[in-house]
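Posting for a labmate who doesn't have an account.
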Amino acid sequence: MKTTLGVIFSSRDFFPAHLVTQARKDVLETLAELGIDSIMLEEDVAIHGAVQTYQHSRMCADLFKKHQDEIDGILVVLPNFGDEKAVADTIKFSGLTVPILVQAYTDDLTSFDVANRRDAFCGKISVCNNLRQYGYAYSVTDLHTVHPKSVEFKQDLAKFVGVCRVVGGLRSARLGAVGARPNAFNTVRYSEKLLQESGITVLTADLSEILGDASKFKDGDILVKQQIDRIMDYIPTDGVPSEAIMRMAKFSAALTRWMTELDVQATALQCWNSVQKNYGVNVCTLMSMMSNELMPSACEVDITGVASMYALQLATGTPSALVDWNNNYGSDPDKCVLFHCGNWAKSFTPDARMAYANILATTLSQENTYGAINGRAPAGPLSFARISTDDQYGIIRAYVGEGEFTDDELDTFGSRAVVRVDHLQDLLKHIVKNGFEHHVAMSGASSAEILNEAFDTYMGWDVYHH
C-alpha cells in the first residue's frame, strides 16, 4: 500500500521566493523516487505553495481536510526560516493527528547573501518549539539540516514512512482473540482497556464457536476444498494423515469467515491444548499461513504478542513470528535459541515441512497434534519487539532491538533459530526485572528505530531500545 504525505512548505516573508520553488522541485523528485504520494498546495497558491500567514494556513488545512482519509503523515519542509505559527496553525486547523516529520535545508557557505541565505537551521528550532507548544508529537531528521535529495534525507523519509504505517496501523488495529487463555499461562494476561486507549480493538470468539462452525462443513464444500488446496500448496505434508488436513481445512474455513465478518487483521489462538483434545489437530500450519500472508497469528491467545507481530509487519512490510526466548546457546552470552512448536511463517524456514508437535505429543499423542511446522531459520538480519500492558501502573511498555540469525549448529525439532544479540544478557535482565512475557515477536528485516520512534513519540508508550 502506498504512503501519502501531506506536505507543508513554509516561508518567511523577507526571504526570496525562488528558494520555495526549488524546494518543491527537490521534494517532488525525492517523493517520486521513493514511491510516495503527496498532497500539497499548488505552486500558484499562497507563496509558491508555501504557508507564511494565517490565511495560507487555512488554505492548506482545508486541502488536507479534503484528503484526511488519504494522508498518513505530514512532512514540513523549511526552504528558509519558515513561519513557525503558520506551520503549527496549518496542522491544528487540519484536524490531523498523524506523525509529523520536520526537515530544514542546509545553507551554502558560498551563498550567505540576502538573495540566497536560508536560516532554516534556526527556523527549525522555532517551528519545533511551536509544535511542542501546540501539543503535537513530531519527528526530526538525523541531521539538523539536510538536503531533500541527499541519501541521508531519503533514509529519514523511509524510516518516517515506516513510522506512519506502524502508528496508523496500530491506532486502528482489530485483533481477534480466539478461545480462552490457557490456564497455565498467566504470562499472557493483558488489559483490553489499555490497548483500547491506544486504538487497538480486541474482538473475541469462544473456541467452541469456531469448532462448532467447523463441524458443520462437509468434506466436499467448496470453502473446504479451497482451504485444502491452500494447505497442500503451502508446505510439504508427507506422512500427515489426510483426516488431519481435512480438520485443519474446516477450522480454517470457519476462522476465515469469522475474521472476514469482523474485519479482523490479526489473531491469537487457543492452541494449547483445547484444540488438540477437542478437535484432534494442531493449528500451527494455519497460523503460519496467515502470518505469511501478512495476517499475523500468535499462539496461546497472546494478544499483546500478536500486537507486537503486527507492529513489526507494519514497520517492514514482511512477515513476523512469535517465539520463545527459549535456550542458552552453549557458553556464548550473546547467543540464544528461539523456538516454538511450529507456527512461524515459512519465509523464516525455507526447509519447512508439516509434522506433529513433539512436545505436545508426549501427553496428547501424535495423532492429535499434526499440523506443527518443522524448520530452521537460516542466517540473516533479525529485529525483535515486545508490547506488554502493565496493569499495575496503567501503562503500556515495550522493548525493541536488533541482532542476527546465525548458522550455528542446532540439532532439535520445531520452528527454531540460533540468534546473536549484542549484550544479550543486559536485554534479558531488562526483560525479567520488568516482568515482560517469555514470548517475543521477530522479523527478518531492520525495524528497531522505526518501532522505537512509533511507540515512544506517537503511541506514548514506555520503550526500551536495546
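Reply:
Got it, the C-alpha cells are right above this. The chain is about 40% helix and 25% strand.
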